[in-house]
Amino acid sequence: MSTDELVTNFFGDEVPKPAILTRPWFHRHYPFSIVGAILLIANFSKLMSGVIDAHVANPTVRAILHAPIQLVGGTLATLVGRDPVGFFERSMACGFFLIGLYLVLLAAFSFRRRGLRMFAYGAGGIVIGVLALHTLAYAVLITLFLAKFLFIIVSAIVYVVKALLYFLFHDLWPVLALLAVAGAVFLAYKLREELLYALRVAWLLIRRNVTRLLAIAVVGWLFYLIYPVIYRWIIVPIIAFLNWFLPILFLIVGWIALVVGGLLAGFAVLAFAFMALAFVGSLAVTQLQAGWHAARSQAQALTAGIAIGSALALIVLVSVGTPALATALDQAWRGAFAFTGASHLATSQSVASVFANFLPTALREFAFTYLTNLQAPALDSFLLLATACLASLSVLFRLFSNQPVADEYVPIRLLAVEYTKMMIGVFALLFLIFAAALSGDSHNG
To answer: What Cα–Cα distance (Å) separates residue 108 from each residue in 10, 103, 232?
Structure first.
């Protein structure tokens, strides 16, 4: 079962997909839009407040738009407490522990089924998700390099063609003119029979239609004589009427177009905002669904791994530029090992530093320049914790049950589709993170 089918029902029941922008479609997606609105408000409250203050002049409308931002912010502050960094550290420690537990349970599950494919797909999905930002960043750099190289090649070709044309038409124009005259004479000589035949046909047509030509000339002369009368008594009144009527007509049509265009533009903006919120909400819901269905098949194990890895990558990205968050992330990493009594296995390297060292220089400098002094990504760490918990429970339930598990190999098409969807989601969230950072937002994405 694909991720698209899982979005409609948390437990995987198939629901037919209605058409886009219809009433069933809105009814199906409005819960995701609510979830998306909560996520955006929780993570980008200052950015959204700034947009509202800059573009909404009516105080009443502004207060109405600020109300859900204040409600979500207050609720999140109540849940997180007075120490969001401490909450972030504890939730990430539990998240790291549950990710390790998920991998251990997946290995045991695979060993029980006498194969390692489930474990390979699950662990491989986490690696793919963690490296999603690196892949996206290097893909952008390679694309820019190829575009620049192609621009240089095209510019060189254009320069050569321009130089050649300038040489031909500026320095050799007498030769070209002589060649053109010689070519015309040569063609006239080669096609002399056809040209003579065409001239004879034209002369015959003129002789045959001489009466009609004379009649046309007479009519034209008569029209020339009576044109002043027609212009004065017919054309001038029509022009005067049009000069009076057309501004009124244009004003009416303009107002109608303005009203209809405004309604259509408002509907388009609302529909786009609804779709964007539903998309962001579906990312979070799909992430949780992927964890819940992690042990159903190898494809679901891969999808769950990608969801966990991409969520972890985004959390680490917004933590690398803030020393308090980077320290909390390192403490959470060591705390996860300490919880199992294997603290000596924890690496002494900073998790945020290792992650940032493999990023392209431009993205790394952006993170350390703009993604600083951010609030702890408490909600994102909680979603990661919930996803890892659901994935562990899914594998644990299947480990001690006799329910069949699909053994099919994961097709390349499914991997490409899931990876593409994950990359689109990461790109969208990166755009929001960068917009919030450039606007001076104190919250993360």
So the answer is: 26, 9, 100
The pLDDT value given to residue 444: 41
> CA 357 to CA 142: how far, in whole Å?
18
Take residue 284 and report the two structure tokens written for it: 């979070």
Please state, in angstroms and rounded to a whole number, the distance separating the CA atoms of residues 433 and 321: 13
How is residue 183 written in tokens? 């070519």
List, in order, residues 6 or more apart from 117 with CB less than 8 Å away.
110, 298, 409
* Among the listed residues 290, 241, 273, 281, the one whose alpha carbon sits nearest the alpha carbon of residue 392: 290
Q: Provide the pLDDT for residue 305.
A: 86
Enter the pTM of the model: 0.64
**Separation CA 296–CA 298 (nearest Å):** 7
Q: Are 422 and 310 spatial neighbours (Cβ–Cβ below 8 Å)?
A: yes
The pLDDT assigned to 383 comes to: 84
Q: What are phi and psi of 406, to 5 degrees?
A: -65, 130
Q: How far apart are CA 422 and CA 137, in angstroms?
A: 14
Q: What is the DSSP letter of 20?
A: T
What pLDDT is stored for residue 378 in this prediction?
77
CA neighbor of 308 nearest in space, from 159, 131, 444, 76: 131
pLDDT value of position 269: 76
Mean pLDDT, the chain cut into blocks of 10 residues (445 residues total):
40 45 65 76 72 78 81 76 80 88 87 79 86 79 90 92 80 77 83 84 80 81 81 83 86 89 81 74 78 80 84 82 83 76 58 79 76 73 86 85 60 58 62 56 43
Measured from the Cβ of residue 111, the count of other Cβ atoms closer than 10 Å reads 12
Alpha carbon distance 130, 423 (integer Å): 11
Q: What is the pLDDT of residue 149?
A: 93
Note whether 32 and 278 are within 8 A (CB).
yes
Alpha-carbon gap, residue 18 to 24, rounded angstroms: 6
Rounded Cα–Cα distance for residues 387 and 184 (Å): 80
Owner of token pair 């962001």: 280
What proportions of the chain, in percent to the nearest 5, are helix, strand and coil?
80, 0, 15
Chain centroid to Cα 7, Å, comes to 19
For residue 347, which amino acid is it? T
Q: For residue 309, report the phi and psi dihedrals to the nearest 5 degrees.
A: -65, -45
Look at residue 32 in the predicted model and tell me its pLDDT: 75
| Straight-line distance from the first to the last Cα atom of the chain, in angstroms, rounded to the nearest whole number | 29
Task: Report pLDDT for 156.
Answer: 92
Q: Give 71's DSSP letter.
A: H
